[in-house]
Amino acid sequence: MQSTDHRRLTFAIAVIATLAGQSTARADPVADFYKGKTITILVPIGPGGTYDLYGRLGAEIMQKHLPGKPIAITQLMTGGGGAVSTNYIANRSPKDGTSLISLHGSAPQNQVLGVTGVSYDLAQFLMIGQFSPLNSSLTVWRATSPAVTLEDAKKKEVVLGSTGQGSYQYQLPILLNQFVGTKFKVVLGYRGIPEENLAMERGEIHGRGGTLVSWAVTEANWVKENKIAHLVQVGARRAPGFDDVPLATELVSSPEHKIAFDLVSAGSLMGRSLAGSPGIPPDRAKALRDAFDKGIKDPEIIAKAAEWKLDLEPFPGAELEAIVKRILTTPKPVVDMVKNAIEAKPQ
Predict the structure, then answer these.
(1) Of 133, 184, 194, nearest to 156 (Cα)?
(2) Which domains does the chain have, with CATH numbers?
(3) In 3-state terms, what secondary structure has residue 238?
(4) Is the pTM here over 0.85, yes or no?
(5) Which positions ≥6 away from 307 have C-beta within 8 Å?
(6) Measured on CA atoms in the order 120, 39, 77, 300, is the torsion positive or negative?
(7) To which H or E segment does residue 42 belong?
(8) Beta bridge partners of 161
(9) 230: β partners
(10) What are the C-alpha distances in Å from 82 to residues 264, 279, 332?
(11) What would the pLDDT profile of 57-108 be if each residue is shown by its tens digit?
């Protein structure tokens, strides 16, 4: 009898152990964490632009493809050329994988240049993935601008708007003034693209910086009616469809000046990217990157991007991380050259 009882006890223990093992195997700590949670993606520039739209696309991806099916929302946090939201993610947000950011393209060079208001270290951020690299431009309103080519801008003052000194909207024209001889004047303090666009229409400013492809998204009628002119672009190469717009690096012969423009142009390499706060646990960090890589190939996500007129030329998080590292290690002589130019009294 004892032998039978012992066998039954042994069998029961084995069954319990097997069931416990199966339960452990089925458990997914990442899914368990995200279930019922809300992910917030901060948007550093005002509503309606590509930062906003790519941020929303990131929310769609995370909500659909992250284990646990969390709710994902976007939240505007503007100011300082993107520094306000990036500082928040670095210093005040939860470090658990629920706080992400539609990262401002100028964030890495602003860190390198020590722009006022920057208190983050992008080397500590999680680079989740890039939606698309995006060339940027200086663009003017044809009806009011005294110059509609860069050559004309060397002869006549052109007034441009900018959110702050931390924005390439300020840095690029200042470097062009220093290295190329243009006469740009930059007015600081605009709260975002819609406000700058209104100022262009009113004649308060002649133009602003912006991503080349975003004009067709946010101001399609302006493009269709030929109301704007692109003076110069920044990027690794001339953007398709904008072959007649010169690259800033093509305007100088000095190797040092070319590297300086490369630093300011680094935002085009960053393009529209998704990043997470420092300190995200490794298993959640991997899940966030995996969700992005899977989502960016999802036909429904691709269709949504097409509906919103967003380009997709994705880079995985590891490659984006390498881009950030390269920008953050720009040689000091180049950094000093650029800092001396942009830290002068605003034009």
Answers:
(1) 184
(2) 30-133+271-330 (3.40.190.150), 136-267+336-342 (3.40.190.10)
(3) coil
(4) no
(5) none
(6) positive
(7) strand 38-43
(8) 187, 208
(9) 139
(10) 15, 21, 24
(11) 999 999 999 999 999 999 999 988 789 999 999 999 999 999 999 999 889 9
